[in-house]
Structure to design on (205 residues):
């Protein structure tokens, strides 16, 4: 997920050493603006109307607005979920270390020392993942790419469904997100790329 101040189009950031990742490119219908140097941030909609006046400190970073309402605010190194309809207080008191973009009303979050969780736009926990899942990306074509640590210590990629369950087992050394129903994966260190469908079936090389 990208946290942006004046611009609202970017590739996502990644946390080193595992956690939650996102690599979506999106454009928001809202802008975050300052009326002067070191002033608090305001939110302005596509019609130029101020929907929230001076609500976030100058050092804060904000994500795009998802589904016309919710967005992430990063301050003091932590992430909280807010709503355009009620911007002065977070929708939940949880503060996260990392979070993905919302897609289909769902996002993945992580807090240090705890399993990754899937939440909805109100901050409700929809699923808690196993501790062996070290990294999750945002949803593409209804599937979220994840990385799992095996009993032998190997890190392999697979895909989760919208319930947070494993849809395609972690069996790939490298894997891309799904687009138009297909993804490119690699089983070994050698260059043996495969094209799979959303059921995990190999449909090309």
């Amino acid at each position: 997920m990208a946290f942006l101040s004046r611009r609202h189009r970017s590739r996502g950031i990644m946390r080193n050493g595992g956690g939650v990742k996102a690599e979506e490119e999106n454009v928001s219908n809202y802008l975050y603006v300052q009326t002067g140097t070191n002033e608090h941030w305001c939110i302005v909609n596509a019609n130029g109307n101020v929907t929230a006046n001076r609500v976030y400190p100058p050092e804060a970073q904000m994500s795009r607005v998802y589904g016309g309402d919710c967005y992430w605010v990063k301050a003091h190194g932590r992430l909280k979920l807010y709503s355009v309809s009620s911007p002065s207080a977070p929708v939940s008191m949880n503060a996260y270390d990392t979070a993905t973009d919302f897609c289909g009303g769902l996002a993945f979050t992580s807090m240090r020392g705890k399993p990754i969780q899937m939440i909805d736009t109100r901050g409700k926990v929809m699923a808690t993942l196993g501790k062996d899942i070290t990294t999750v990306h945002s949803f593409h074509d209804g599937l979220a790419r994840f990385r799992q640590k095996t009993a032998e210590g190997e890190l392999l990629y697979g895909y989760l469904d919208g319930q947070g369950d494993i849809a395609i087992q972690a069996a790939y050394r490298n894997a891309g997100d799904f687009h138009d129903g297909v993804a490119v994966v690699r089983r070994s260190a050698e260059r043996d790329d495969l094209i799979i469908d959303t059921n995990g079936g190999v449909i090309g090389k």
Notes: The two ends are 30 Å apart (CA to CA). The mean pLDDT is 85. The chain is about 0% helix and 45% strand. The longest strand covers residues 133-140.
